[in-house]
Amino acid sequence: MTGSVDGLRAVDLHEVAATSAGWVDQEIPGGSAPVRLHRLWLDRASKASVSLVRFPPGWERMATGSYAVAEEFVVLAGVLEMNGRRHGAGCWAFVPADACRQDTRTPDGALALAWFGGVPTWQPGWYDVRRRTASGPADVLGVLMASSAGHGGSEVVSGPLAPAAKARDALDVERWTWTWLPAGAGLPARVDRLLVRSW
């Protein structure tokens, strides 16, 4: 169910994943087949976005390259492999702008929630070796990514979420609930684990 109160919007990702409404085919440069994409949020100025992405079984991109913007993702179901790392359900990863992407595949298909910092322009054959991908479990309390000039910061928290000056979004990995929180909004209900990303 999707609900909205004072700009706060909650989305049940189980329901989104179970329906065909709102999904579109999306070509990924170098990909072996289109993926399915369901946009949850888009900033019209910067083109930063949050989307559910469904990779079909056997999908792969063997080409090496990079995106001009950062991507952050959590695998909700299945396994997504990239750069020799295996990201299973409940795994979080941050891929900086210009970081290497190679040998990307999902043998049995995968569903992921993905955040992009802007338009993901593919840069074939080029990457910056100084840019490193970070990854780990999406349900361990603490800071996943510190705030920086190009990223508002991501952390896993527990309990009610106090209001903040910045807009944020929050993912309950266990319940598959995604919530958009405009500036000044919080979540009064206690939640065991929330992955919170500041914009």
Spatial shape: globular
The secondary-structure class comes to mainly beta
- Major sheet details: 8 strands, antiparallel
How many individual β-strands?
19
Global Rg: 16 Å
Report the uncertain regions. 1-6
Per DSSP, what share of the residues sits in E-state strands of 2 or more residues?
Answer: over 45%
What's the CATH class, please?
Answer: Mainly Beta
Percentage of residues in helical conformation? under 10%
Number of separate structural domains? 1
CATH architectural type: Sandwich
> What count of helical segments does DSSP give?
1
- The CATH homologous superfamily is termed Jelly Rolls
Distance between the termini: 24 Å
Mean pLDDT: 94
Instruction: Please write the string of helix (H) and strand (E) elements.
Output: EEHEEEEEEEEEEEEEEEEE
CATH level 3 topology: Jelly Rolls
Question: What is the element layout, followed by pairings?
Answer:
Layout: E1 2-5, E2 8-12, H1 13-18, E3 24-26, E4 35-42, E5 49-55, E6 59-61, E7 65-67, E8 71-82, E9 85-88, E10 91-95, E11 104-106, E12 110-116, E13 122-124, E14 134-137, E15 142-145, E16 154-157, E17 168-172, E18 177-181, E19 194-198
Antiparallel strand pairs: 1-2, 2-18, 3-4, 4-5, 5-12, 6-11, 7-13, 8-9, 8-10, 8-12, 10-14, 15-16, 16-19, 17-18, 17-19
Q: How is this structure best described in words?
A:
- The chain is mainly beta.
- It has a single domain, classed as Jelly Rolls, CATH 2.60.120.
- The chain is 3% helix and 47% strand.
- The protein is built from 1 helix and 19 strands.
- The chain has one helix at residues 13-18, and strands at 2-5, 8-12, 24-26, 35-42, 49-55, 59-61, 65-67, 71-82, 85-88, 91-95, 104-106, 110-116, 122-124, 134-137, 142-145, 154-157, 168-172, 177-181, 194-198.
- Strands 3, 4, 5, 8, 9, 10, 12 and 14 form an 8-stranded antiparallel β-sheet that branches. It has a 7-stranded antiparallel β-sheet with strand order 1-2-18-17-19-16-15. Strands 6-11 form a two-stranded antiparallel sheet.
- Strand 17 (168-172) and strand 18 form a beta hairpin.
- The chain is globular.
- The two termini are 24 Å apart.
- The model is unreliable at 1-6 (pLDDT under 50).
